[in-house]
Amino acid sequence: MKFAAKELEIRRPLWIALSELYLDTEPDWERVASICAASPFDISELRRILFDEVHPIVHSNLWAAAGVWDGFNEDWLVTSILARKRRPLIRLPWPEERRTPWRELKPHIISARKGVETAP
């Protein structure tokens, strides 16, 4: 994938934050949502970035016996996303038995954009 320098500057923190959804630990939903909410992307584009740019690179961590739990190497993550030649042609369903990150994250992003605290 190719991005202009300004676009890459905007996407990099998103990629890093969204990759936290694929760690072998519970994500910091509020922190990830605040980074997403601060971006210029609408909800549908944020979802696309999650599933078309981040997911293909880090999804296998969810299936690893001893997966990454303390965070992906940021340079590796960005380099791997940029090295992809294209967006996925099909999007495989999210493994519901693991977690449903988008359903959990989306309301937090909406609330953060409205400036309203999300109830626990």
Describe this structure in words.
Residues 10-89 form the DUF7079 domain. It comes from Thermomonas carbonis. Pfam families: DUF7079 (PF23296). This protein has 120 residues and is mainly α. The chain has one domain (5-114). 53% of the residues lie in helices and 0% in strands. It has five helices and no strands. The chain has helices at 5-19, 29-37, 43-58, 74-83, 101-114. The longest helix is centred in the middle third of the chain and has 16 residues, at 43-58. The mean pLDDT is 85.
Give a short synopsis of this structure.
Pfam families: DUF7079. The protein has 120 residues and is mainly alpha-helical.
What keywords describe this structure?
5 helices
SS class: mainly alpha
> Largest sheet, described in full?
none
Number of helices: 5
Q: How many independent structural domains? A: 1
Spans of at least 5 consecutive residues whose pLDDT stays below 50 are none
* End-to-end distance: 37 Å
Order of helices and strands: HHHHH
Proportion of residues in helical segments: 40-55%
| Morphology | globular
Radius of gyration, CA atoms, in whole angstroms? 14 Å
Share of β-strand residues = under 5%
Look at the structure and give the mean pLDDT.
Answer: 85
Give the total of beta strands: 0
